[in-house]
Amino acid sequence: MTSLIPARLTVVRTLELLLAVLLTVTVLPRWGVPVDLVLVLVVAVGLRAGTQVGALFGLVAGLLVDVVPPGSVPLGATALVYAAIGAGAGVLHRSVRASVLLPAACLLLAAAAVQLVRLGVAASARQGFDLGHAAALVVLTAVVGALLVPPVMRLEHHLVARGMV
User: Fold this and answer.
1) Residue 100: inside a domain, yes or no?
2) Model confidence over 97-115: pLDDT tens digits?
3) I need a surface site. Which of 33, 103, 120, 142 has the fewest CB within 10 A?
4) Is 36 left (phi over 0), alpha (psi -120 to 50) or beta?
5) How far apart are CA 78 and CA 30, in angstroms?
6) What range defines the domain where residue 42 resides?
């Protein structure tokens, strides 16, 4: 008989995701800091857990971003992009110990990909798009992510090593 209680690591990831969404939507915009903490978390999980978990986590994270105000149009676009980014980061999960710069480079590419998709959506809907804001978001997300990804990965490694999952 399988347990209906989720693994502790799933609970930790869920709490991290909820905190990242709330901070990204409420606190950081008030401080004028354009950082996508959800994307940082998607890359961290992908780098730590591999392609399947990275893609699934990215899909769930993107859906949450899509439904939390201000949301995104079309619904599901962010979910698909984050799923692809989670899977892409997961491809590199065996190489993450080889380079300290890998998480930062991965985040820079991921943040740029998200902004390119948003640019495409805005162009197809004939809406304006602030390139300066998008560039700031890409750079700040990569910098903050380079600082946050290693501790998130260490936390998950610690939980797995201690048998807490």
Assistant:
1) yes
2) 667 788 889 999 999 999 8
3) 120
4) beta
5) 22
6) 8-158
